[in-house]
Design a protein that fits this description.
Length: about 500
């Protein structure tokens, strides 16, 4: 039997929390240990190659997940996609070789030592493969097993990193070695799990497939996305290249640090994305539109509010967070973090709302919306990074504004598809942030702060959380629940605490 949606979400959420806590340690250790320049070089390589691999992916991983979710018995999809992954790696390495022979590598990767280029490419490739593996586990409803492994593996990886930082001459080379050990060991463990669960069987080794029909199947899903992927990824590569070229590795490092901290807001919401995508896909296959409506109206506003709760607080506590995690060399990332803190809110909308397009097979519409927001974002890039020379702050503003525009265009078409009202979703986006900003302002200005940065941060967070709980009791709709559901949950929680 499959684990319930609730159980799968809880274990994925737990894995995300553990991952988030470990990322907090990483943010506190790695940038400081590497320094702004080396960390900026790592951030640039990560961004550059992740965009390049996303281009080569061309939406096929989403097609793979969607189709495997609806019919998990199709072993030929796994065989085909591993062949595709191998071809992707070959193309990536050939691209690097040809670019180097033609002496264009320094133009594409300015201020990056050549010995790190292949490391950056392999790191991004193995990161992408781990995401494919997670898609396989989610599509087979093995979320509980896979995420439990992920939790234990993350903890063990953290101990390895702490050893490397404290007992080895830690530099960018050592950090890449750590990433390779961590990623490859995780892939090996999941492979063993898939073999035991009969997902990986001898059947996937059969290379005699109906290649023509499978390729047509993938093309029908992904081809509308090809133009969008080409344009969006070209713009993404241009953006990070422009930041590196105009502002240098330090500014790229500031952006990478701010993004890493802001991404912690996405812990609770990203856990639901693959689960909701799977439920959307199965509901469309069953023609159960009402269930899709219920899921959409329930979880998207709820998870947006959860993300906003963290995002707003991080924006107000940006100086304290930087003092906790880094040193004076990263002091200039303060304004970048304030802006980037708001990015995960609409990233939540983008992932959950965007998954509906894939489940419904309306990828042409998704492409058109994506192209529109990508081109608008290009204008913002020119203005903020090149014209006004705002560096990492400008890049952050570009990401926020382009995201808000694109997500709300998606929302318009999704509400039309499901025949539900748009305005409540728009209104919820605005008043949720407004209320949380007021609560965050009160919590950070209510008492006199002492010299302990950690104590101030924890006390502010405690007061802020109490205020949000009070607001939720008065207006539970902010988290997409009603008072009956809220008090039922509180009574259940009280009963568990008291042991009844």
């Amino acid at each position: 039997m499959e684990d319930s949606l609730k159980k799968r979400y809880i274990i994925k959420l737990l894995a995300n929390i553990v991952n988030g806590l470990i990322n907090i340690v990483l943010v506190a250790i790695v940038p400081k240990a590497l320094g702004p320049v080396a960390f900026g070089q790592f951030s640039y390589l990560q961004q550059f190659f992740s965009q390049l691999i996303a281009f080569l992916d061309a939406g096929t991983s989403t097609a793979f997940f969607t189709k495997l979710s609806s019919k998990s018995h199709r072993k030929e999809l796994i065989t085909f996609y591993f062949l595709f992954s191998t071809a992707l790696l070959v193309v990536l390495l050939v691209f690097l070789y040809v670019t180097n022979i033609l002496n264009y590598l320094d133009d594409l990767l300015p201020d990056i030592p050549k010995e790190y280029v292949v490391y950056g490419a392999l790191f991004s490739f193995f990161t992408w493969i781990t995401q494919v593996y997670i898609k396989i586990s989610d599509s087979h409803a093995l979320t509980v097993s896979a995420e439990s492994i992920k939790i234990l593996h993350k903890v063990m990886s953290l101990f390895l990193l702490l050893y490397m930082v404290n007992f080895l001459p830690f530099d960018l080379n050592i950090y890449f070695y750590f990433q390779f050990i961590s990623l490859l060991s995780f892939l090996m463990i999941l492979t063993i799990l898939f073999v035991k669960k009969n997902i990986f069987t001898k059947e996937i080794l059969r290379l005699r497939l109906a290649y023509t029909s499978i390729i047509k199947e993938f093309l029908s899903f992904s081809s509308p996305l090809f133009i969008f992927n080409t344009v969006a990824i070209a713009i993404g590569l241009f953006d990070i290249w422009l930041l590196q070229k105009m502002s240098g590795s330090v500014q790229t490092g500031f952006y990478g640090l701010a993004y890493s901290i802001a991404a912690m807001c996405f812990l609770f919401t990203s856990a639901m994305t693959p689960i909701i995508t799977r439920e959307f896909s199965q509901s469309f296959a069953d023609d159960d539109i009402q269930r899709i409506k219920d899921l959409f109206k329930r979880y998207i506003p709820m998870l947006y509010a959860v993300s906003a709760y963290f995002s707003v607080f991080i924006a107000f506590e940006s100086q304290n967070l930087l003092m906790l995690f880094t040193d004076e060399k990263f002091k200039g990332a303060y304004l970048v973090l304030i802006v980037m803190a708001f990015y995960p809110m609409h990233q939540t909308y983008g992932q959950l709302s965007g998954s509906l397009f894939f489940a419904a097979g309306t990828t042409k519409q998704y492409r058109n919306i994506g192209l529109t927001s990508a081109l608008i974002g290009l204008v913002f890039s020119y203005l903020f990074i090149y014209h006004f020379e705002l560096g990492a702050v400008g890049f952050a503003w570009k990401m926020i504004l382009a995201q808000i525009i694109g997500v709300n265009i998606q929302l318009y078409f999704n509400t039309r598809l499901l025949k539900i009202k748009l305005l409540p979703f728009i209104f919820h986006q605005v008043y949720t942030v407004g209320i949380f900003v007021v609560m965050a302002y009160i919590s950070t200005h209510l008492i006199y702060h002492i010299e302990s940065v950690l104590f101030d941060f924890l006390l502010d967070g405690f007061i802020y959380t109490l205020l949000i709980i009070l607001v939720t009791i008065l207006y539970p709709s902010i988290f997409s629940v009603n008072k009956i559901e809220l008090f039922s949950f509180l009574n259940s929680l009280r009963g568990r605490i008291s042991g009844k």
